[in-house]
Design a protein that fits this description.
Strand order of the largest sheet: 14-13-10-11-12-15-16
Number of helices: 37
Distance between the termini: 44 Å
Largest sheet: 7 strands, antiparallel
Number of strands: 38
Shape: globular
Strand content: 15-25%
Radius of gyration: 28 Å
Length: about 1100
């Protein structure tokens, strides 16, 4: 069927902020859907609260609403825009749940909006655990033995039937939120409670334990004519019991027999037919008992998912793009395969290589969180690698993780003897595969390892082959002939790993390898195992030779002038989607300017690794070895204009000096200037020359020096290591004992680089400034005033553009200082500066002559594509070529951070200088209070309209901010509950409150009151180790019971202003395009 002509406008609901379980793969799918539908002539209306995405760029959709994704707000947008159809399958669980809520409210019916891609019946049948089980029973597909429960009584009744261990799966959630594995009765009661709470329909499935079974996923696409194809079969190396998003996975499935594969394939298509998914991609999860081959369906997702992004990048088949076109009436045979250009989309992909995905975890950001994996997802990103053998693919994936691994690095196992080794591998930890390799080195048999890990013997045999090869390399040294060297490189050994094994250097290994003429070749991803020639240059490296020893390279570099952009690798806290956004804009802008753009990255979730973002894509680890091999091939033809290292965060910056030393031209700000800004000592010197102030500080290279400086600077102070991103290792230190605990860790963190000990400017206002510079002229693109005080990492703080309390004189001085630093550092491209303002004095905290995480927010708030402009400045254009926007815009944009504390029970939620947020949202409105309100709604914070507010404030915060906040909530009809000291202070200023005991003052206390539902909002600021510890339980209960809480005076004031602003008039919604047009 050709496309539908009875609809002309389509609304797409995005996934909102990046959270664990719902990450940037939905930016990738949403961006593809927007492009695909606009291509077909439809008017596209997009709703997404996340400013860091490519999909919210104003030219991606016809009307872009950066508004909170709540049913009430989306209903207002539908009323305003009147779309004909709603596509809910591109926005993860957020998109589906919002669409169902709009249907429940009668909004879709009222405005005549049709749901396309998946209808209500299909969504409910797949997502509702009871309906899904009934559907599977109808077609004779086995489910795990299970009970569905909707309250705690039903849960307890199910315990006798299911037994323990049991697996708890909440309905209508994502990333296993709220669920888990119950090994005992206490676990069971806990997970049933959290599961019922997490499910929007209060429903959980209590499954029999399938722990140790093999887990598989099938990515299926089906159209209205009942054409159905399997895009990819994915096998989890980790057995059942670890969430598939936290599992190491490979594609294609490697341990199924052909009979098992064909059965799983057929049944997956049967599942889609029964559920009624007619248009688009779905993911069906299976468990197979390795003892008897029993095959059980676990669940299916009637939408594009995390696995869809992985399957798309693994095969080259653009699932989201095809799904969007199927949703408007096309069938698979009517669509072309964009990679081959000659086969239809109905041609089932087949692949002649192996793909490995390894998740990226950041447990180090959450002290107190146990690094144990289960059915609730905890990873924040992933790396993907492609190789011709499982050995090559696995080792490349390990080096792609950006954790310092060079392959199967040695691991230290605590304790002595076999028992200690078994204990280490028996736990489901993020580094379990590395521990298994270490267990092999320490002599544990494969049978013993299999018994305690349930890893399939086939995978254990392959890891053992790598470990055995390592032992030979340790004994015999580096191969001395090209045949042996190629054989070793075919197994995926990186030069850096070979250097460790043979007591050499990475440079030494590279020289030996090149002397033997052993070089990487590049193969193309073609969707068809080389049956047809790939027209799209989407490539991966290999060292594989055929039986005759010959190697064929398919790179075919062009004769054009080219720019290489280095991506950011896997998402992690501190280096997220914002950097990928910048990389994409570099590709778009430089392609438009006539350059051939070449992208190098290893993140399967992102838009930067989409086949049509750059002219050429290399899916490779961001290591010096990989990048040099690619550049060697690209320099064989055409001209390399240069490499951009400033857009991908810390990952490519680490390579800048080595690339420059190898004679590779680096575009934009020089590596030396970047180094100057990162090196605390050199930066200090520059700021002295420019007569700019830093907080009173000193540099320490040893613990002894640190104590001398601490005495001079005074407590509290902030420790700042060099060369880190996301505040890694930064700490507010309050006394000598605290300094003793942290100084060694911080110094070792940055190697030979000293650490800066800064005076902590208590109560200072922090400001972020983004600027563009061409080496001669400077344009200040955005000035953002933080709402949290200095000391909270800028990535975790809410901020306002334009500033909401700073006067014109201060803003002018901030601009002057920014311009002086940009010229002083000879910046070409982007620069970010963080300032602190205390008692009217401006201090410089940090200078980053590179892209920062605020770039997409500034671009959306001001309507100026600053990353694209920066890319062209780096390529040599002057600032005068561009229309530059005054950042003093006539409305307010507020960015708010989204934090993942609900995934890490027991971790204190108090913010500090180390970044812990996973994503962000943006609120945009005419007044600051309304913009802040929208940012809170977008972040899932439900500010109350009635009830009690708990107020407990440290002495240094007792001032105008808190009085304004308390008066506002009191005037709105809230009752104030306060601790004694705060109650007395409020009373002395004419504000009445009721006194409650602190935690240590006896019962009943504030925590009892919160647990009984007596508090609807918390304003609690603390200082000093004891006070922070005393109030920890308050924060813990607030998190668990979803009570909004603010831990800074400025945050309390902003929240109270937002609550007041909400009562003054109806919330309005405006598209980004209409806002920019008014400027």
């Amino acid at each position: 069927m050709p496309k539908r002509t009875d609809i002309s406008s389509i609304m797409i609901i995005g996934a909102g902020p990046i959270i664990i379980g719902q990450a940037c793969e939905f930016d990738y799918s949403g961006a593809q859907a927007c492009k695909a539908l606009k291509e077909e002539g439809y008017r596209v209306i997009l709703v997404n609260s996340n400013p860091a995405t490519i999909m919210t760029d104003p030219d991606m959709a016809d009307a872009t609403y950066i508004e909170p994704i709540t049913p009430e707000i989306v209903a207002k947008i539908i009323e305003k825009e009147r779309p004909d159809a709603l596509l809910p399958t591109m926005g993860g669980q957020t998109g589906l749940n919002t669409a169902l809520a709009l249907d429940d409210m009668g909004v879709l019916k009222k405005f005549g909006v049709e749901m396309i891609g998946a209808d209500r019946k299909a969504i409910e049948m797949a997502e509702d655990r009871k309906l899904f089980r009934e559907a599977m029973d109808r077609i004779g597909i086995e489910n795990p033995r299970a009970v569905i429960a909707e309250n705690m009584e039903e849960c307890m009744a199910a315990l006798d039937d299911i037994g323990l261990p049991a697996i708890i799966r909440p309905a209508f959630t994502m990333g296993g939120t709220g669920g888990g594995i119950a090994y005992n009765r206490e676990d069971y009661i806990h997970f049933c409670g959290t599961g019922l709470d997490a499910s929007p329909v209060n429903q959980i499935l209590i499954d029999e334990s399938l722990l140790g079974w093999k887990e598989f996923e099938m990515e299926v696409v089906r159209d209205k004519a009942d054409n159905a194809i399997i895009i990819c079969a994915i096998e989890n190396i980790d057995p059942m019991g670890v969430h598939t998003g936290d599992s190491i996975t490979v594609a294609p499935a490697l341990t199924l027999t052909d009979k098992e594969y064909q059965l799983m394939r057929t049944r997956s298509i049967d599942v889609l037919r029964e559920i009624g998914v007619e248009t688009g991609g779905s993911n069906v999860q299976w468990a197979v008992n390795p003892e008897d081959g029993r095959m059980i369906v676990i669940e299916m997702n009637p939408r594009v998912s995390r696995s869809s992004a992985l399957a798309s990048k693994a095969t080259g088949f653009p699932i989201a793009r095809v799904a969007a076109k199927l949703a408007v009436g096309y069938t698979l045979d009517e669509l072309d395969n964009d990679i081959t250009k000659v086969t239809p989309a109905s041609f089932e992909p087949s692949i002649d290589y192996i793909v490995t995905k390894i998740p990226r975890f950041t447990f180090e950001k959450f002290p107190g969180a146990e690094p144990i994996l289960g059915t609730a997802m905890k990873s924040v990103g992933e790396a993907m690698a492609i190789g011709r053998t499982i050995h090559e693919s696995l080792q490349k994936a390990l080096t792609s993780l950006e954790t310092g691994l060079t392959g199967f690095d040695e691991m230290e196992i605590e304790g002595e003897g076999e028992a200690a080794v078994i204990a280490a591998i028996s736990k489901q930890t993020p580094d379990r595969m590395l521990l298994i390799a270490q267990a092999m080195r320490e002599g544990l048999s494969l049978e013993t390892i299999h018994t305690h890990t349930k890893y399939d013997p086939w995978f254990l045999d392959r890891i053992k082959e790598i470990v055995d090869e390592e032992a030979l390399l340790r004994t015999n040294g580096l191969p001395t002939n090209s045949v042996e060297m190629r054989r070793i490189k075919m197994m995926g050994f990186s030069d850096a790993r070979l250097a460790t094994l043979t007591k050499n250097t990475e440079t030494g290994v590279r020289k030996s390898r090149l002397a033997m003429d052993v070089k990487a070749v590049f193969k193309r991803i073609d969707t068809c195992a080389a049956e047809f020639e790939a027209q799209t240059p989407y490539m991966y490296s290999t060292y594989e030779a055929d039986a005759m020893g010959s190697v064929e390279c398919e790179a075919r570099p062009s004769n054009r002038k080219k720019v290489v952009i280095l991506g950011g690798g896997p998402n992690r806290i501190g280096q997220g989607i914002e950097f990928d956004y910048c990389c994409c804009h570099a590709c778009y802008a430089l392609t438009k300017a006539g350059y051939e753009t070449i992208m190098i990255n290893c993140n399967p979730e992102t838009v930067s690794t989409d086949y049509d973002t750059s002219d050429r894509l290399y899916f490779e680890p961001l290591t010096l070895e990989s990048v040099l091999e690619i550049l060697r091939v690209e320099q064989e033809n055409g001209t390399l204009h240069g490499v951009i290292v400033q857009f991908g965060g810390q990952t490519p910056l680490k390579l800048a000096n080595d690339l420059e030393a190898a004679g590779i031209p680096i575009l934009g700000t020089s590596p030396d200037a970047i180094d100057l800004a990162e090196d605390r000592e050199r930066l200090q010197k520059l700021l002295h020359e420019l007569d700019l102030k830093q907080p009173h500080n000193g540099l320490a290279s040893s613990p002894e020096e640190a104590f001398v400086i601490a005495k001079d600077v005074g407590y509290p102070l902030v420790i700042r290591p060099s060369y880190v991103l996301g505040g890694r290792g930064m700490e507010i230190v309050r006394d000598d004992a605290h300094l003793t605990r942290y100084i060694d860790a911080a110094i070792s963190l940055s190697g030979d680089n000293p650490v800066l000990l800064d005076s902590y400017l208590t109560g200072a206002i922090e400001v972020d400034v983004d600027a563009l510079c061409d080496g001669k002229n400077v344009h200040v693109a955005g000035i953002m005033e933080h709402i949290e005080e200095a000391g909270v990492h800028s990535g975790d703080s809410a901020c306002s553009l334009p500033p909401y309390t700073l006067d014109a004189e201060t803003i002018a001085e901030l601009k002057r200082q920014t311009e002086a630093m940009a010229i002083g550092l000879n910046v070409v491209g982007l620069m970010n500066v963080q300032f602190a303002i205390k008692d009217g004095v401006i201090y410089v905290l940090e200078v980053n002559p590179r892209a920062s995480r605020t770039v997409p927010f500034v671009a959306k708030a001001t309507g100026s594509p600053i990353a694209a402009i920066a890319a062209r400045l780096m390529a040599g254009e002057p600032l005068s070529n561009f229309d530059l926007v005054d950042p003093n815009i006539p409305y307010y944009a507020v960015k708010e951070a989204v934090l993942p504390f609900n995934r890490f029970p027991g971790v204190d939620t108090l913010l500090g200088p180390e970044m812990r947020s996973t994503g962000e949202v943006m609120g945009i409105d005419k007044t600051f209070s309304r913009a802040f309100l929208k940012s809170q709604m977008g972040a899932g914070v439900d500010l109350p309209t009635t009830g009690n507010v708990f107020v407990s404030i440290k002495d240094s915060d007792k001032g105008d901010m808190i009085l304004e906040a308390a008066r506002n909530v009191a005037n709105l009809g809230f009752k104030i509950i306060a601790t004694r000291g705060t109650a007395e202070y409020l009373a002395s200023n004419g504000i009445m409150s009721e006194v409650v005991n602190k935690v240590y003052e006896g019962r009943p206390n504030i925590v009892d009151m919160m647990k009984d539902g007596g508090i609807q909002l918390v304003f609690n600021t603390t200082e000093g180790a004891q006070s922070i510890d005393d109030s920890r339980e308050i924060r813990s209960v607030a998190l668990y019971d979803k009570i909004p809480y603010y831990t800074t005076a400025a945050g309390c004031r902003a929240a109270a202003r937002a609550m007041k602003g909400r009562t003054e008039s109806e919330i309005e919604v405006n598209s980004l395009q209409s806002i920019i047009a008014q400027m």
